[in-house]
Every structure is written in structure tokens, then in C-alpha cells.
Amino acid sequence: MTTYLIRRILLLVPTLLGITLLTFLLVREAPGNIALMKGAGGENGSRAMTAEQREAMIKLYGLDKDPFTAYAEWIGRLTRLDLGDSWVDHRSVVAKIGERIGLTASLAGSALLISYLVAIPLGVIAAIKRGQVTDRAISFTVFVLYSIPSFAAALLLILLVAGGDYLNLLPMYGTNSINASEMGRFEWLWDRIQHMILPVICLTYGSLSYISRYARVSMLEALAQDFIRTARAKGLPERLVILHHALRNALIPIITIFALELPVLISGAVIIEEIFSLPGMGQLMFASLEARDNPTIMGITVFVSILTLLGYLLADILYVVVDPRIRYE
Amino acid sequence: MNQTNFVHESYAQRIWRRFRAEPFARNGLWTILVLFAVAALAPFLANSHAIIRVADGRVTFPIFPSLEPIEWRFLLYVPLAGLAWLFRRRLFARPLGGATFLLALVILIEVWLVFHHVVNDPTNDRDRPAAFKLMPLVPFSPVETASEPFLPPSWTHPCGTDSTGRDIAARMLHGARTSLSIGFVAQSIALSIGVTLGSLAGYYRSWPDIAICRLIEIMDCFPPLLLILVAVSLFESQNNMFYIMAVIGLTTWTGMARLVRGEFLRLSGLPFTLAAQAIGAGDLRVIVRHILPNALGPILVAGTFGVASTILLESSLSFLGFGMQAPTPSWGDILGESRLYIDFAWWLAFFPGLAILITIMSYNFVGEGLRDAVDPRLRIK
Fold this sequence. Notes:
The structure holds two protein chains of two kinds.
Chain A: H1 2-29, H2 34-39, H3 51-60, H4 67-79, H5 93-128, H6 133-147, H7 150-161, H8 185-223, H9 226-233, H10 238-256, H11 258-275, H12 281-291, H13 294-322
Helix pairs in contact in A: 1-13, 5-6, 5-8, 5-11, 5-13, 6-8, 7-8, 7-11, 8-10, 8-11, 9-10, 10-13, 11-12, 11-13, 12-13
Chain B: H1 11-20, H2 23-45, E1 52-55, E2 58-60, H3 69-86, H4 88-91, H5 95-115, E3 132-134, H6 168-204, H7 206-220, H8 224-234, H9 241-251, H10 254-267, H11 271-278, H12 283-319, H13 331-338, H14 346-374
Antiparallel strand pairs in B: 1-2, 1-3
Helix pairs in contact in B: 1-14, 2-3, 2-6, 2-14, 3-5, 6-7, 6-9, 6-10, 6-12, 7-10, 8-9, 10-12, 11-12, 12-13, 12-14, 13-14
């Protein structure tokens, strides 16, 4: 196991190099650059840069270097955990990501938690009531939910419950109300929770339907095993058979897919943050793409890919932890 | 005793029989076919020009000169594909001959389209007097700003109008073309790459396998939307339909490659593969003629689910404003435009959202039905 782990961790390095090289070249070789964006003029009456000024700026940001040299330099700084400074506001990329990661993490985290808490009971009930009306109703609902695009759901939810012509129960945009700074601690928290309800719902239902479908199949497989028949034959109450014998075994594959849900949730958060105007990683990504802020784009890529790679690794380790029959050599 | 037990049934026939037995899957397939018909006939369902117009003693068909090349493509290729399928036995009695014939037809159409001149006539036939005229179902074109903005659904505008007074129903009908063709073409690109790389990795193992697996891992570590967003937003000037298709295809092939690799690893150890190799069949022949047909079922299933997720991806991109450039309508575009007016104009979000939902659900139902038909062990009643 230890050897396996060490090998897996070492294999992360070439993968990460591949990801960053691909993004680096893509971002660098794309038409347009920061000097053109900043030097275009026009905004608040400023004039466009002269050609010399633009040249100087290109030189300043190292955009005149050959892309592979630039990549090597960037990697050199990365090994010292230095992601550089943003080209837009010259603050460190790590700090920029740091102040936004909390929101995205809490969004994705609560979405993941809620989907598991709802999806597992749903899947288990559907499996127990297999073929009956309850099962069909749950399966169909989950299937429809699975097919609704999250942005369409977000728009309709805003329209229906958040300040449209219909119900006005929840706030529409942002993380807090305007007067948040005057609120007491609990009032502030309540305000924040109200703002997060809709984004979390939109982010949750997709993975919820995926996990509950998965949970149902997994539970059905567990219920078909011989030891379930044995448990029933020796006269255990049905509740015990399901909760202790079947569910415990069914949980193995369900738990391990959480790592695979991570990149999906991050993608989802990008859209949801955009719709609800939440200042998270997704918005930062959009802003830096628009401004051609290469260091920030690269910083986010590194951050997200390391997270994803660790997720996959964690999934593999969890397999072993929850199922002693699996061994890695 | 019972003779029918011994009637020969091919693999494809067996899958088709099991597939047809599932009501959801069957209806899903019908819905998709109807959607494709709508996409092909969109210019005849929603147009400001009349289909037939009789005036001054002359009979004219004002709709035809205004058709864009892409509309001609849909109009000609969809029936062509249908006919080819109907007459597949006769057409492919000699496979090479049939393929040549189809290719010649395609080249003929494309060459004609190159020289074809589109007449851009801004007038509409709605108000023009005529002795007789047959207007399309929705007498508006998707780009004309003919009406008041923000009209709620009514008899004239069944799905309302948008912020510039364009008819939503017309935009939706034409948008079906974008969404469906992107889903189909992008997934075909992903499928070709995935099948090629997956079969190479699974068949040759050793270093091609290691290299391809690493590539798959690299691609997989980007959250699905992120890489596409980077590619699309950086090359914004080239955002035409084919660019979007290519980007989506080039970034979503990994699932297919994983699947094909797994199938090839399994199948290349089985006796029939060894037998083919033993009688001296070349690698290409073993891969294409012996192993691939046996892996076709799962590939088809994954491809169908893939189309659904591609359509979702395209609509997310359009929604975020990174999709195709206006005025090419797409369902995601209409949804994206509706964001600013969502507090009162529900029809702007409801109809395109419903269209996307129905399309994705149909594809998912078909995928589900196919999966059960391909592998009955997975069927859970």
C-alpha cells in the first residue's frame, strides 16, 4: 500500500506538468494579450498606448519570451510555491484565490453534504420498494432532475421565489444584504444563509440525482447477495437486515464517488456563481479570462487540478479503507 | 416443439427488439426524431417569407431564395440520411459502391452550395397583399425585430417576444438546429477520437497504453467546463459553430476512450481474437472487423449519453455568453439573454429551458433503454 501510494503521488507530477503546460500554451498563444487589453484606451477618456509603450509592457510581462522558456520559469517559481502576481491589480495570485476559495468551498461542500444526506435515503427507499409506485415515482423524479440544466433551474427559481412578480421570499443576488455590516453576528449569519439557499439548491440537485441513482443500483446489488438471504433466514427484523447488512455494503461504492463529484461541482459552481453574482473562484476565473490575466488563470488551473487529482487519489485510498478485500500492490 | 425459438436473430435485431419494449426509450427516440425534423424544417416552420405566394398572376416560392447554406444542408442531408437508411440493403450490397454514391451526392450538394447565392430580402410577406399566400406556422424570422419588445405569449407570438421584439417561437425553432447539430457533431468528434485512442491503448497495451492513459488523466483533471471556457473565450473572434463543435469534441473524448480501452482489454484476450490473429489477420483488420463490432453496444450507449451532456455543455456556454455569436440563435443564448429580465419575463426562460430539458431527457431515456437492451443483466425493473 505504501509503495502504491508513493508511486501514485509521484505520478501526479507528470500529470500536473501536462495540465499546466497545456493551459500555459493555450493562454499564451491565444490572440490578444494583457498589453492590448490595458492599452486599448477609450474608457473614461484615456487615450490608447503608443506602440513603444505597448512594446515596453509586453517586455515587462515577459510576453516577448519564447513560450517554453516562459513555462520553465513559471514552473521554477511554482516549485517555490510562488504563483506570481496578478497582472491586473498586482496582488499575489495566492492571496486573490485565498479570499475567494472560502465561498466556493462552502458552496460545493454544502451541496455535496446535502446531496449525500438526501440521495442515500432516496436511493435506499427506491431499492427497497423496487418496482412499486414509490420506486417509480422516485426514479422518474430523479431522472427528470438529472436532465434539467442548472442555469435554467436557477433562472426559474429566481423568477418564482426571489423578488420577481411572484413570491418574494429570498434575496436574488450576492452574498449578503447591503446593510450586512450593521447586523449582529446571528442576524448576519441568517442573512448569509438566506442568500445561499438558492445557489446551493441549484448546485445540489444535479449531483443529488446522480448519487441517488447510483445508491439505488448499489443497494439493489447488495440486497441480492447471499448474506442478505441468510440474515433474513435467521429471522432478523427487516429494518436490521437493510440498515446493518445491506446498507453498509452498499455504501462502499457510493462514498467513493464523492471524489469524482468534485470537478463536476466546481464546474457547476462557475455557472451558479455567475448567475447569483457570488464573488467566488468562478467569477475570478471569468474576470481573469476576460482581462487576459495569465498568472491568475494559471493559478486557478493549478489549484483546481491539484484538488481534482487529490480527489481521485482519495477515491482510490477510500476503496481500500472501506473494503478490505481490495489491495493495491 | 416451438419452431420460433430457433429463428435466427442478429445482435442488432435483438438489441432493437429489447429497446422497443421499453416505452420511455421508444418515446425518447420518437421525440429526438421529431426534434430533428423540426430542425430540418425550421425555415418552413418559422419564416417571414411565404412558402407559396400567388400575386399578379405569378406563383412564387419566396422562402427558397432566402435559405442559408446551413439550412440547405439540413434540408438535404436529413432526408438523404433517412433514404440511405431505408435503402441500406440495396445501397450497401456493394459497400464501396454505396459509399461512393453517397459521397458523390454530398460533394455535388457542397459544390452547389459554394456557388449558391443567398438572396437577403428584408421585406416580409405578412403584410404584403397577395391573391393567395401560405405562410409558415410562425410567420416571423428569428432575426427580425418586427414586434413590440417583451410581449407575453399570445396567439400571434406563441412564446412571446424578447427585449428587441424578436419572436421567441421562431428563435426556438431555428435554435433547435444549433443545439441538435452541435450535440451530434461534437459527440461524433469525441467518439472518433475516443474510439481511435481507446482501441490503440487497449489493443497494443505497453507504452501506447501508458501514454494514452496519461493523456486521458490530464484531460480529465480539468473540470469539464474550465478547459472549454479557456479555449472558447481566448479565441473569441473565431466563435462559429464549427469551432465550438471542435472544442467540445476535443475536450470530451476521455470517457469514450476509457470505455473503449476497457472493452478492448477484455476482448483482445478472448479466443475469437486469438483465432483471427492465428489465421494471419493484420492488426487493423482484427481491430476494425473483429473487436470493434463486439464493443459497439457499450460505445453506442455512451455516445447517446454523451450527446445529452454535449447539448447541456453547449447551452451552458451559450448561456454564459461564450457560445456562438449572435444572431445565430441557440436555446442557451435565449436563456442567457433572459437573465436581465428574469424578474418579469418568465417566457424568456421557460420555453428554451423546457426545450433543453426535453431534448436532454429524450437522449437520456434512449441511452438508458439502449443500455438495458445491450446488457440485460443491468436491467432493474
